[in-house]
Amino acid sequence: MTYFQGEPISETEIQKLNNEPYRLQINDILYIDIKANNPEIVSMFKTSGGNESSSNKGEGLYFSGYSIDRHGNIRMPYLGDVNVLGYSEKEVREKIEVELGKFFKNPELIFVTVKLAGIKLIVTGEVGSPGTINLAQNQVSIIDAISNAGEITPFGNREEVTVIRKSIDGVKKYNLDYTKISIFTSENFYLQPNDIVYVSPLKQKSWGTGATGFQSFTTVVTILSFLVSSVLLVKNL
């Protein structure tokens, strides 16, 4: 199966969805770093895990990062619960800077960095290595996700790649055709944290007729040969 068939279409506008900032959801994990001209005071607002561990990726930030609880809050030393549900990274940074400004004489010298601690996805179905992946990137495309899951198997239906997304509005499903070049201009080309990517199997798998057209043809010929041989054998009895 050939991927990305067809010719690219010239786009005059970039897809709006790809330019909109991601809105934080429950169970997201944030990496937050604070710098100022008074390191002693800054250390008060950091977690005991340091939040600056050499392992700032994947599982390391599960312990040293700030997890958004079911109420939409992160809990920071001295600041207490800070609600960030539905905020963008920039809005969280600005909110923390305002709160920290109450503790510093020169709040304009505070430098706060807020980043989503990787993008966690589940890739399942007909892929080489189904499971959970966590990529330390600002954006993750459907191609990134499938490539990191071991590519689509010969039995996977490349024309029916489904993205399942849970949002405030409920669960939504989006279908993508991995064989068409138009996938690059799809509004769902870039995935969101906690998306589920499902690659459905080809009908040949459930029928057991082979992964490719040639294998299916060989299977049909074998069956026909068996039937003809059986008929001839019965006639000769």
Query: What is the helix tally?
Result: 7
Shape: elongated
What's the β-strand tally?
12
Tell me the strand order in the biggest sheet.
7-6-12-9-10
**Strand percent estimate:** 25-35%
- Weakly predicted, low-confidence segments: 50-57
Order of helices and strands: HEHHEEEHEEEEHEEEEHH
Q: What is the CA-CA span between the terminal residues?
A: 47 Å
Helix content: 25-40%
Report the structural category: alpha+beta
Average pLDDT over all residues = 81
Rg is 26 Å
- Biggest sheet layout: 5 strands, mixed
Tell me about this structure.
With 237 residues, the chain is α+β, with helices and mostly antiparallel strands. Helix content is 27%, strand content 27%. The protein has helices spanning 16-19, 39-44, 60-64, 89-100, 142-148, 203-207, 213-236; strands spanning 29-35, 66-67, 73-76, 80-83, 111-116, 119-125, 131-135, 140-141, 156-167, 170-176, 190-191, 196-201. The strands form 4 sheets. It has a 5-stranded mixed beta sheet. Strand 6 (119-125) and strand 7 form a beta hairpin. The model is unreliable at 50-57 (pLDDT under 50).
Question: What are the defining features of this structure?
Answer:
single chain; 237 residues; alpha+beta; five-stranded mixed sheet; three-stranded antiparallel sheet; 7 helices; 12 strands; 27% strand; elongated
Q: Could you outline the blueprint of secondary structure elements for this entry?
A:
Elements: H1 16-19, E1 29-35, H2 39-44, H3 60-64, E2 66-67, E3 73-76, E4 80-83, H4 89-100, E5 111-116, E6 119-125, E7 131-135, E8 140-141, H5 142-148, E9 156-167, E10 170-176, E11 190-191, E12 196-201, H6 203-207, H7 213-236
Parallel strand pairs: 6-12
Antiparallel strand pairs: 1-2, 1-5, 3-4, 6-7, 8-11, 9-10, 9-12
